[in-house]
Amino acid sequence: MAECKLLIQNGSYIQQCVVEEGIVLETARRKTAGKLSFTVLKDEALDFQEGNPVIFMYNGQKVFYGFVFTKERSNNEKIKVVAYDALRYFKNKDTYVYTKKTASQILKMLIADFKLKFGLVDDTKYVIPSGAEDNKELFEIVQNALDQTTQATGAMYVLFADHNGINLKNMKDMKLNILIDETTSESFSYSTSIDSETYNKIKLVYENKDKGKREIYIAQDSSNQNRWGVLQYFESIQSNTNGKLKADTLLKLYNKKTRKLSINKVKGDIRVRGGSLLPIMLHLGDMTVSNHMVVESAKHTFTESQHTMDLVFIGGEFNA
To answer: In the chain, which ranges are E strands?
Structure first.
């Protein structure tokens, strides 16, 4: 039988809570804090407040570290609780102006400014010429920098928090050897679309004030334009450095159908989170998937008898 242990610290007092069956942990790949939902059974000794640290352990391993944000009483015996990990504080808004910084340097700046804990932050290497973020969530400030890094280099990064602190990891290093196929899941849902995040023409414009002219960089796929019509992505860029390369990179990222694959009741593994890469082998009707795919979101449900996951995938033909 699995062991679920949930601890809440109130000042110097650490209390192990009696928890109702069905603890739920949700994580996502982009701009979302990890969320733990649970119901504790009230007794005379239990005493905790909003802001108190929460630790959830499953079979002796730390699964979640975060803070109480919401308490809801349905009667005198039960309290529904929502806790978020440290990325919840990235919903704070602020204004930043910076020059010649990498996305990882920007992240470290925000972590320090808001007195959060450093985990492991990979070096994103690409130097962003300049940036101005006015009244933006920290999530958006970091994601804008990461998006520029991806557009310039093709590398994708995942921001997440755990008991070590706030981390940034190259997605290619988040592969897990957990095969998902017909035997390991209960059901799936699969859809395709060109309605969102699909572009077969990229047009980037740079206003070159020194030369007094507009520079235009275009990358396009005429065959997909014949199939779908012209679906154009347009952006005014701040630098003409590698403008053509950026256009080509964006076309490679977006010139395909968006596909969404949801798989339910997969046997649970605490290592799986939004941003993980898992090998998939499934026949989906119009195609067979046999490659690594990115977990867009993961919902873990823990009971004493089982641990299951509901997963949403992107990657390969499944676009971010």
So the answer is: 4-10, 13-16, 23-28, 35-41, 53-58, 61-73, 78-84, 93-102, 118-121, 127-137, 157-162, 165-170, 187-193, 201-208, 213-220, 232-236, 258-267, 277-283, 288-302, 307-314
**For residue 95, is pLDDT > 90?**
yes
Q: What is the mean pLDDT of residues 32-39?
A: 97
Give the span between the Cα atoms of 65 and 19, in whole angstroms: 16
Q: How far apart are CA 92 and CA 94, in angstroms?
A: 7
**Average predicted confidence (pLDDT) for the chain:** 91
Instruction: Quote the CA–CA distance of 93 and 142 in Å, as a whole number.
Output: 12
Instruction: Report how far apart, in Å, the C-alpha atoms of 191 and of each of 7, 170, 222, 229, 252 are.
Output: 40, 27, 25, 20, 21
276 in Cβ contact with 297 (< 8 Å): no
Q: Quote the CA–CA distance of 56 and 196 in Å, as a whole number.
A: 37
Q: Which amino acid would we find at residue 146? A: L
Instruction: State how far the Cα of 92 lies from the Cα of 21, in Å rounded to an integer.
Output: 33
d(CA 118, CA 125): 18
Say what the pLDDT of residue 184 is.
79
| 50-60: average pLDDT | 95
| Highest mean pLDDT, choosing among 188-192, 215-219, 290-294 | 215-219
Query: For residue 51, which of 72, 70, 28 has the smallest C-alpha distance?
Result: 70
261 pairs with which residues across the strands? 190, 313
What does the pLDDT read at residue 286? 67
**How does DSSP classify residue 234?**
E
Question: What domains are there in the chain, each with its CATH number?
Answer: 4-84 (2.30.300.10), 89-163 (3.55.50), 174-194+258-314 (2.40.30.150), 201-254 (no CATH)
| pLDDT value of residue 315 | 61
Residues 229, 234, 240: CA angle, nearest 5 degrees: 135
> Tokens in use for 213?
């002219």
Dihedral of CA atoms 284, 290, 296, 299 in degrees, nearest 10, equals: 80
Q: What pTM, to 2 d.p., does this model score?
A: 0.84
